Amino acid sequence: MTKEIKRVAVFTSGGDAPGMNAAIRAIVRNAFNNDLHIYGIMRGYEGMIDGNIKRLETSDVSNIIHRGGTMLKTARSQRFMTPEGRKLAYENLVDSDIDGLIAIGGNGTFTGASKFMEEYPDIPIVGLPGTIDNDLFGTDFTIGFDTAVNTAVQAVDKIRDTADSHNRLFFVEVMGRHSGFIALHTAIAGGAGGVVIPEEEFSLDDVVKLLKRGAKRSKLFSIVIVAEGNQMGTVYDIAKQVEEHIDFCDDIKVTVIGHLQRGGSPSSFDRVLASVLGFASVEALLAGKTGVMAGLRNNNVHYTPFTEAISKSKPLNKDLLRMAHILAQ
Ligand code: F6P
Known about the structure:
Radius of gyration: 22 Å
CATH topology of the largest domain: Rossmann fold
Number of strands: 11
Number of domains: 2
Low-confidence stretches: none
Bound molecules: 6-O-phosphono-beta-D-fructofuranose
CATH class of the largest domain: Alpha Beta
Order of helices and strands: EHEHEHEHEHEHEHEHEHEEHH
CATH architecture of the largest domain: 3-Layer(aba) Sandwich
Strand order of the largest sheet: 3-2-1-4-5-10-11
Distance between the termini: 60 Å
């Protein structure tokens, strides 16, 4: 028999992502719509371990849909990786009579949730993909990805002015610890001269060939997008190695966009995605679902078990990659 859900707690965990607030808002509002009591756990699993759990009212989520970051704060909890940490977290949830959880985060968040559910299966958990990396299997897009790409593209547009004015070659590093989604989309939208991502083996020769191809048609500047998790090394290493083989431009520069990509007002796409998935997650809990991540597949809400979301790698669109290489000429 499905357990009756009356008191639900929501938390954000791992790296913040633009749109997390929009998701919290949708969860709180739909919880009220279903006469649930809704709680916020501060700083993810850290707050669960410390008992930092507070009641939320609908007014608490007014005026947050447009804000980046997360009103519930976040953390990458080391303590939750230990059985002692998880036991403390469970005891605090029981003390607060929490009978359902909604977790917003990425791979680490769902790895923690899976472990917790193995030990304490009586508290159902539904997840929402909140990470700029877009690297979760089971959803076409994660909350925050679209905004991060837009931020990176704005930066590339600005760098292009200097690259063009000075005949410079720029290597621009974007985030993506294990995945090239941000890099690939930024390269396409930013009209880059090349893209280096973790999913593809790329050598120094390949990069040089690519740049010389552009130089052949008198291209005096170029911008190459490098994902931080690429197989060639740091963006500085790549720039240094390439320097000795290139003579078509006046200078080589490196820009690391870094955490600029994680902040800022979420795009309308991320706000809608977060609202749809946040809304769905409450209904999923009420319908008795647990251990699943609510994602979007072909524009429909789809539930993927945490175990699959974290163990299967999300394939990069090979056609998009091939196109990016061709358009980079
Ligand atoms: O997972 C999101 C992400 O922004 C990655 O792209 C990046 O590698 C990592 O988080 C950085 O994490 P932190 O902010 O903890 O250094």
